[in-house]
Design brief:
Layout: H1 26-35, E1 39-43, H2 47-55, E2 60-63, H3 67-70, H4 82-95, E3 100-104, H5 114-126, E4 132-136, H6 142-151, E5 155-160, H7 166-169, H8 179-195, E6 199-203, H9 207-216, E7 221-224, E8 232-236, H10 237-240, H11 257-273, H12 286-302
Parallel strand pairs: 1-2, 1-8, 2-3, 3-4, 4-5, 5-6, 6-7, 7-8
Helix pairs in contact: 2-4, 4-5, 5-6, 6-8, 8-9
Bound molecules: 3-methyl-2-oxobutanoic acid (KIV).
Length: about 300
């Protein structure tokens, strides 16, 4: 059997506390899903953090369009520029080469026409080094998912609550809480899997919807606010670390890094104030110091 998931307890190895594991691929995630072994995913936005997340045993990293809010401070995910997605995706892959990296295709980068959608998804793969791209979709996106898949681009179809459509719904929120909408989400998932989606991502739905999607599809299903039954689980890293002021209700932080960052930065403010900046200073060799002081004195005398 292909053992792929990192040991839960195990001797840390590699540079600075990483765990040894085989590189994780989409096939690995499929195998884990088939074995009923949940895999962990996080949205994050830089290479150094990606490296630490790989060392922690995270299986998939998403260069999410949430970067528009988290990194750029913009009001909605729809502001995410495609070029930034490409750059951030490549940064994650360079930081975590043994982890599946997913590019989150931004608003309007796959809606206007199929040629443009294919070229943009292709950029995420070639320039962005993505292993898979994610599209927010309903069943009407089946043809473009089919075309991407035929072109060799693995696609994760994001169904349920779709943040890029927040303007229509009047904000972010849950989905599938009425019988009609729940049934539509399940049909979307089925149609997109049939079109070739290699994975599904299910956002902010009741457990009943998740159970129905899992019963009707065979590809790995990643959940965010979609209960515990999904094959994989994803959150925005900043919500998990306690860095965001208003995380969504389904994101329970495992750390309080916001306050830790504030306290660490405040300690720096105090050090600067006290002229005790720490670290190691640069020094001159004694003969250079004497020569330099003589040169300074000479300049003073001759001016
Ligand atoms: O952009 C994002 O962070 C997402 C979530 C599903 C994590 O799409």
């Amino acid at each position: 059997m292909d053992t792929v998931s990192p040991p839960i307890t195990g001797k840390p190895d590699g540079e600075r506390g990483g765990q040894v594991r085989k590189p994780v691929t989409i096939k690995t995630l499929r195998q884990m899903a088939a074995r009923g072994e949940p895999f962990a995913c996080l949205a994050c936005y830089d290479a150094i953090t990606a490296r630490w997340l790989e060392r922690a045993g995270v299986h998939l990293l998403l260069a999410g369009d949430s970067a528009a809010e988290i990194v750029l401070g913009l009001p909605r995910t729809i502001h995410m520029p495609l070029d930034l997605t490409v750059w951030l995706t490549a940064a994650l892959k360079r930081g975590a080469p043994g982890t599946v990296v997913m590019a989150d295709m931004p608003f309007l980068s796959y809606h206007t026409d199929d040629g443009e959608a294919l070229r943009n998804a292709g950029r995420c793969m070639t320039e962005g080094l993505a292993d898979i791209v994610k599209l927010e979709a309903d069943a009407s996106f089946a043809p473009i998912i089919d075309k991407m898949t035929r072109a060799g681009i693995p696609v994760c179809a994001h169904v349920g609550s779709l943040p890029q459509r927040a303007a229509i719904r009047g904000g972010y929120g849950s989905a599938g809480r009425s019988a009609k909408e729940a049934a539509r989400i399940v049909e979307d998932a089925v149609a997109l899997e049939q079109a070739g989606a290699a994975m599904l991502l299910l956002e902010a739905v009741p457990d009943e919807v998740t159970d129905a999607v899992l019963a009707r599809t065979r590809v790995p299903v990643i959940g965010i606010g979609a209960g515990t039954a999904c094959h994989g689980q994803i959150l925005v890293l900043h919500d998990l670390l306690g860095l965001t002021d208003h995380p969504p209700r389904f994101a329970e932080p495992t750390a309080n890094l916001g306050e830790a960052v504030r306290d660490a930065a405040h300690a720096w403010v105090q050090r600067v104030h006290a002229r005790e900046i720490g670290g190691r200073r640069y020094e001159m060799a004694e003969d250079e110091r004497v020569a330099f002081q003589e040169a300074v004195q000479h300049r003073k005398a001759s001016s």
